[in-house]
Amino acid sequence: MSVTIRKTATWIEETHLEMGKPISPPTRKAVAVAVISNPFSGMYQEDLTELMETGAMLGGLLGDKCVAALGITPAEAESYGKAAMVGENGELEHAAALLHPSLGAPLRKAVEKGAALVPSSKKMGGPGQVLDVPLGHKDAAYVRSHFDGIEVRLNDAPRANEILVAVAVTDSGRPLPRVGGLAHEDAEGKDGLR
To answer: What DSSP string runs through 9-58?
Structure first.
């Protein structure tokens, strides 16, 4: 594999207070990123298998980093998401190759189960640009309290010949959810919807 990881970063966002109301326990989101070289920078490549295989490796690596950062067991993870930003010498399809065919299965293993689709976003960008990582309940798409997102940004990535890949995991939904939908406790996770 000619893809190399230049750097990784992991951080947690905790919300303790929202609209003057204490959040106890706090809602927590972890996000882990990897900045990788883009083996197809500056050229058209029909076969993107190399990026697909890299996506599989990153799904497990970044998912495990998020679960470890939260200090939870995989079963305690409640939602997840993924995103990628391609530097200027790449193309959007490079992000799609990383995120879609193979990243999901290792991420699902990292969070135990994961019957629902993994929300995703992709974009072109450069150093310091914000990448939004959408979040959804890992087992049941109808759990509205877990529709959320988190921003990631690295001041030096992605460079022109790089891709920034992010995975996010939570141990809770939004603070103060009140728009209805299926409750987390009632999710069965059989069909990815309920």
So the answer is: EEEEEEEEEETTEEEEEEEEEEEEEEEEE-TTTTS--S--HHHHHHHHHH
Using one digit for the tens of pLDDT, what is the confidence trace for 111-153?
998 999 999 999 999 999 999 999 999 999 999 999 999 999 9
5-178 to CATH, choices 1.10.1200.10, 1.10.10.10, 3.40.50.410, 3.30.1330.110: 3.30.1330.110
**Helix H segments across 26-157?**
49-70, 92-99, 104-110
CA distance 44 to 11: 34
Whether this model's pTM surpasses 0.85:
yes
Q: What are 105's two structure tokens? A: 């299965």
